[in-house]
Amino acid sequence: MTRLAPLHALCRFALISLKTIGLMVLAPAALTVAASVSAHADLLSFSHGDVYIDTVKGPRHFTVEVAQTEPQREQGLMFRQSLPANAGMLFLYGQPQQAAFWMKNTFIPLDMLFIGADGHIVNIAKRAVPMSQATIYSSGPVQAILEINGGTADKLGIKPGDMVRVQLAQ
């Protein structure tokens, strides 16, 4: 049986400053459609892993793509037309930080689970609106964010305080 690593042991990547996040999240809406189309043509690939969330209703499993680099985190789930029911994207950061996300070029509603360095869910942004440029913030420092289909957190009873365990593919 493979031992699941605590979240802090998996995060080996550089800290993104709030200034960098702010520039990414609050980028001007004047970006052209052509830029979006060319970015879509150059989509990145991701490593994979498994996420387990211990809830009051029992453990929940998600097969995830893992965004570990800055370009991967910037792309995220943009341009996806669908996401399988028990799938998601896990964003990993090197150190705990305040996080800010948006839904630009994201076509599906998402629940965003903000995860602290201790592996517990800090807060959940439910049913983020597709294509919105509104900024969605963590309510405190986090070391990871898990994006899953909108409404899944309520459906599966996932709540702040639940423990998240991560197993990355070798």
Question: Care to describe what's here?
Answer:
This protein has 170 residues and is of the alpha+beta class. The protein has 5 helices and 9 strands, in the order αααββαββββββαβ. The chain has helices at 7-10, 18-25, 33-41, 70-75, 152-156; strands spanning 47-55, 58-67, 87-97, 100-101, 110-115, 121-128, 136-137, 142-149, 163-168. The strands form 2 sheets. It has a 7-stranded mixed beta sheet. Strand 5 and strand 6 form a beta hairpin. Residues 1-39 have low confidence and may be disordered.
State the gist of this model:
With 170 residues, the chain is an alpha+beta fold. The chain has helices at 7-10, 18-25, 33-41, 70-75, 152-156; strands spanning 47-55, 58-67, 87-97, 100-101, 110-115, 121-128, 136-137, 142-149, 163-168.
Task: Please provide the count of β strands.
Answer: 9
Q: What is the overall pLDDT average?
A: 80
Question: How much β-strand is present in the residues?
Answer: 35-45%
Q: What is the number of helical segments per DSSP (H or I, 4+ residues)? A: 5
